């Protein structure tokens, strides 16, 4: 090794010049490596969230922005006031771009997904009431919309897709052994869903199985998260199907309510599970995402105990005992969840603040 005071025998130049040049090259190489790593991190942290203005998706967007992600959010119309809450999120002005897109419009989805390393497919039609033609109005949009998203992901070379399914795609299975805990190997029976008019369950089962088939046939990395009844504070200014369940509890009713087992999970815990499934390289397959199993009557009584001023339903009909569900697989990914009391309190307080309780 040359010393600074020596002369290089090949170039006859002072050794310190050679050493200086080597140091500069080494420093430049480190800078290039650092820039490449930063660029790769930026690329990995550019994701698309479908149905960005929804109950779950709004929290997904919020948490992604807080973690430094650049988010492409699909909404029906970015100018609509009902999506204004998204633009008010911290870091939204710099890191959130809303795209006008529809699940039935492949081209609009393709534009929103372009340049993203991952897609969190949260959007799904959930009818708030019965529809005249469920196969056309519920099933087809769910299945075809999911396939459009996945095809756009394949075309855009997306590295991973997180599909938000539901326990509705798990629990409607009369052939599952009674008293045996349901896990990710259990799928709802499609024919049973049809004959019992559970079209939402059928649509979620059909859409998730279609996504699984597409992933296997096309080599796309798709992970499914299957949450239960999602409660918790709202970011959007309107009610959705799951928040409406709790709001109905607070309004009271003379009608009898089926006292069935509810699989409850906080919306914030679902959002964290979705992001965890994207970030954890070992995540694969499907994950049941529930925190608490509780009968309808017990849920109402717990709510009334926290808020005695609320008028809760008191008439219940005993129903067939549901199987229990297990989130053990998700817990092994280091997922955690909030206490039920925290979820209920934060739900009611946010409904009141948004003027949703009347």
UniProtKB/TrEMBL annotation:
GO terms for molecular function: oxidoreductase activity, acting on the CH-OH group of donors, NAD or NADP as acceptor. CDD domains: FR_SDR_e. The keyword Repeat does not apply. Keywords: NADP, Oxidoreductase. It holds the Pfam family Epimerase. It comes from Punica granatum (Pomegranate). This is Cinnamoyl-CoA reductase 2-like. The gene is LOC116212824. It comes from the Eukaryota. Residues 47-284 form the NAD-dependent epimerase/dehydratase domain. The keyword Electron transport does not apply.
């Amino acid at each position: 090794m040359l010393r600074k005071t020596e002369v290089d025998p090949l170039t006859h130049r002072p050794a310190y010049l050679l050493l200086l040049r080597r140091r500069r090259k080494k420093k430049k190489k480190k800078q290039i490596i650092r820039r490449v790593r930063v660029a790769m991190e930026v690329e990995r942290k550019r994701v698309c969230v479908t149905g960005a203005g929804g109950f779950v998706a709004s929290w997904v967007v919020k948490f992604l922005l807080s973690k430094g992600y650049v988010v492409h959010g699909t909404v029906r119309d970015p100018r609509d006031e009902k999506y204004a809450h998204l633009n008010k999120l911290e870091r939204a002005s710099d890191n959130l771009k809303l795209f006008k897109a529809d699940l039935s419009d492949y081209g609009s989805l393709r534009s929103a997904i372009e340049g993203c390393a991952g897609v969190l497919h949260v959007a799904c039609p959930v009818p708030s009431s019965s529809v005249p033609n469920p196969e056309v109005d519920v099933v087809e949009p769910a299945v075809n919309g999911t396939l459009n998203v996945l095809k756009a992901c394949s075309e855009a070379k997306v590295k991973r897709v997180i599909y938000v399914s539901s326990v509705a795609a798990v629990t409607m299975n009369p052939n599952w052994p009674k008293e045996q805990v349901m896990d990710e190997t259990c799928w709802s029976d499609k024919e049973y869903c049809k004959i019992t008019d559970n079209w939402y369950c059928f649509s979620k089962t059909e859409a998730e199985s279609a996504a699984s088939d597409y992933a296997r046939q096309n080599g796309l990395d798709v992970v499914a998260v299957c949450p239960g009844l999602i409660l918790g504070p709202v970011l959007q200014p309107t009610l959705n199907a799951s928040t409406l369940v709790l709001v109905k509890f607070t309004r009271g009713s003379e009608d009898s309510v089926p006292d069935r087992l509810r699989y409850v999970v906080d919306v914030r815990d679902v959002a964290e599970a979705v992001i965890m499934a994207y970030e954890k390289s070992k995540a694969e397959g499907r994950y049941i995402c529930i925190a608490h199993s509780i009968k309808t009557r017990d849920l109402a009584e717990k709510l009334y105990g926290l808020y005695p001023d609320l008028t809760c339903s008191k008439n219940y009909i005993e129903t067939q005992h549901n199987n229990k569900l297990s989130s053990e697989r998700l817990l092994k990914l280091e997922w955690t969840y909030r206490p039920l009391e925290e979820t209920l309190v934060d739900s009611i307080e946010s409904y009141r603040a948004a003027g949703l309780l009347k």
